[in-house]
Amino acid sequence: MCTTYVFCLLVNIGTILCFDKFDFLQDNVKYTDLEQFKSDIMFLFEKEFDQMKTENKQLQMENKRLRESISDISQTIEELKREKDARVLTNGNQSAVSSSGIGKRLLLNAAYPSSVQQTKIAFTAALTHDISLGELQPIEYDKVISNIGNAFDARHGHFTAPVKGVYILSGSMLNVKGQEINLEMVKNGVQLVSFYGDINDYSMGSQTIVIALEAYDMVWIRHFRTTGSASIYGRTDQPINTFSGALLFQL
Questions:
Q1: Is the confidence at residue 17, as pLDDT, over 50?
Q2: In the beta sheet, which residues pair with residue 167?
Q3: How far, in Å, CA of 143 to CA of 69, rounded?
Q4: SS3 102
Q5: Is 189 helix (H, G, I), strand (E, B) or coil?
Q6: 21 burial type by CB count under 10 A (0-12 exposed, 13-18 middle, 19+ buried)
Q7: How far apart, in whole angstroms, are the C-alpha atoms of residue 30 and residue 70?
Q8: Pairwise CA distance, residues 211 & 119, whole Å
Q9: d(CA 128, CA 237)
Q10: Better-scored residue on pLDDT, 49 or 4
């Protein structure tokens, strides 16, 4: 660095000498004293050197400010990149979570039979003619309105739960006028709820229950008197006696 200063200084001195910028070097100035000449030259040298040092210091300060500015800009760029990467990561995680959820559902569906994971059970059956019921006789509904999952057996009037779960079951009843009637909804032969029809007139009743059933539990509606018989009402255009059920969710 010092060598550079000296070189530049000598160039400046040469320039000054060539263009006669200082009076003491002009033709009309005659140096008779060598020491004075050396002193003047050294004075010029030191002056130029000091000026160059000052300019160099200013340049160094300017360079420092520029480096700090560049550092600040670089830091800002890095912060923006981190924010961008964070947004990309967040979006990627959300997609991954969504994809993972879909993947898990697909894996679950593949791991378990569809009859377990996606069982859909719902049915409604109705009676369209009068029938006389004997002791503990099941009602055989002759009109199947719906039977999603084929869990209702229309031949015997039985519903068989295909899977363990919580079900909603309901029944409605209308007796023949003058016929007292007692019905019950049973699970595997054990009463769940009962229905009653008054002997004095037409009587209508209904029951709805929510119950947990094991796979292969059987539910039906029957006459529950152990002696005697009674009739229930039914017409094609008046399917009042009904039996319905649906799977709410599996256990």
A1: no
A2: 211, 247
A3: 87
A4: helix
A5: coil
A6: exposed
A7: 55
A8: 17
A9: 7
A10: 49
